[in-house]
Design goal:
There is one protein chain. This protein has 384 residues and is of the alpha/beta class. The protein has 2 domains: 175 residues, Nucleotidyltransferase, domain 5 (2-Layer Sandwich); 174 residues, Nucleotidyltransferase, domain 5 (2-Layer Sandwich), CATH 3.30.420. The strands form 2 sheets. Strands 3-2-1-4-5 form a 5-stranded mixed sheet, sandwiched between helices. Strands 8-7-6-9-10 form a 5-stranded mixed sheet, with helices on both faces. It is globular, with a radius of gyration of 21 Å. The two termini are 22 Å apart. Bound molecules: 5'-O-[(R)-(carboxyoxy)(hydroxy)phosphoryl]adenosine and zinc ion (ZN). 5'-O-[(R)-(carboxyoxy)(hydroxy)phosphoryl]adenosine binds next to helix 7 and helix 8.
């Protein structure tokens, strides 16, 4: 079957076509992501209404490109005013289902993808399945080519056995969550951030250091030349027995560190080496708390595997540390390919497929109900 995925929860307009053949064969036929990073950079973060406006401008072009790349024609005139049945072409014939992000995310941004999905569903009589964005991140681990980690490989089939219970560390610009996955669709929130998400902390610390937005990649880049032990920064909530996180205090500690350093050295700006040391020290602190608390929770809940996902899962320090610690403690460990760490629609299409396979009926009626959406959807107990 072929699934069209649509993702507009934040600042990426993304459309993908996924093909599932037989029991284990997942092919990403196309995965188009149009990033708005440049637009939001000057604001130091994503502006919801601007994001929505950009999605409206871009979604048709991204959709058409995704179809063309997947070899489905002719989508180009789908919205040109010609009678829909005449132009539906490959899309009408070949797409079996539409999977669209319902939440969590920015309300105005989500509405663009949802409305687009519902319009397509209405025009071409396709079923639509609503996908939880965080569940999408979890299933980014199954997107091919899947490498073997700890001698173990994910397949469609073992999504329903072998790896459960699993502990998911989902880390992005909006979320820092430990989610216990007892089985497909059975989720329990084990811990979360009480204030800033870890990606948000990377973005804010980058700003303090005069680096570009998004801060995560910028911090990791300069941290490579820094000494991560130079400045002992706090490890927030590390000693507490629960599995919650907090990143606003760490960000404030960096703010004071920069202020004091400048004052002590009589400088108006820090040099590259000083900034690299701060970036490396911050990165060490932020990732160490994630790794230690994840392993601790994995032991307490007796899980078989640990899965990393979300935009911050692109962080090499986090990937290496978590893989090593998971392995040393006997857990199966998985992390998405770098190209699927950020927001994309292939992961939404795949989560939609798993939802469908688990028995969730795509909603034919969703296309009529624009209000049937919860922008603050949380990943608990059941995905939707
Ligand atoms: O999942 P994502 O693409 O969007 C949200 O759903 O939020 O995550 C974006 C976040 C941003 O905060 C960005 O700074 C962070 O992921 N990020 C990183 C890295 N690459 C992206 N954080 C740390 N290290 C990275 N290499
Ligand atoms: Zn995300």
């Amino acid at each position: 079957m072929k699934i069209l995925g649509i993702e507009t929860s934040c600042d990426e307009t993304a459309v993908a076509v996924l093909e599932i053949k037989g029991k284990n064969n997942i092919t990403v036929l196309s995965n188009i992501v149009s990033s708005q990073v440049k637009l939001h950079a000057k604001f130091g973060g994503v502006v919801p209404n601007l994001a929505a406006r950009e999605h409206v401008k871009n979604i048709r072009r991204v959709f058409e490109l995704a179809l063309k790349t997947a070899g489905l024609n002719p989508p180009a005139t789908a919205f040109s005013g010609a009678p829909p049945r005449a132009v539906a072409g490959g899309f009408k014939k070949e797409i079996d289902m539409i999977a669209v992000t319902r939440g969590p995310g920015l309300g105005p941004a989500l509405l663009v993808g949802l409305s687009f999905a519902k319009t397509l569903a209405w025009l071409y009589d396709k079923p639509v399945i609503g996908v939880n964005h965080l569940e999408g991140h979890i299933f980014s681990n199954w997107l091919p080519p899947i490498r073997k980690i700890n001698n173990y490989q994910l397949t469609i089939n073992n999504a329903f056995c072998h790896i459960f219970p699993a502990l998911n560390l989902i880390v992005s610009g909006g979320h820092t969550e430990l989610v216990l996955m007892k089985d497909y669709g059975k989720y329990e929130l084990v811990g979360e951030t009480l204030d800033d998400a870890v990606g948000e902390a990377f973005d804010k610390v980058a700003r303090l250091l005069g680096l570009e937005y998004p801060g995560g990649p910028a911090i990791s880049k300069i941290a490579k030349n820094g000494n991560s032990d130079k400045y002992p920064l706090p490890r927030p909530m590390l000693k507490l027995k629960n599995y919650n996180f907090s990143y606003s205090g760490l960000k404030t500690a960096v703010l004071y560190l920069i202020r004091d350093l400048k004052k002590d050295l009589g400088l108006s700006t820090l040099n590259l080496k000083q900034r690299a040391d701060i970036a490396a020290s911050f990165q060490k602190s932020a990732t160490e708390v994630l790794v230690i608390k994840t392993i601790r929770a994995a032991k307490q809940y007796g899980v078989k595997s640990i899965l990393l996902s979300g935009g911050v899962s692109a962080n090499e320090t986090l990937r290496t540390k978590l893989e090593k610690n998971a392995e040393q403690n006997g857990f199966k460990y998985f992390q998405p390919l770098m190209k699927y760490t950020g927001d994309n629609a292939a992961m939404i299409a795949l989560a939609g497929y798993f939802s469908y396979k688990a028995g969730k009926k795509p909603k034919k009626d969703l296309k009529w109900d624009l209000i049937d959406m919860d922008a603050n959807l949380r990943l608990r107990n059941t995905p939707l």
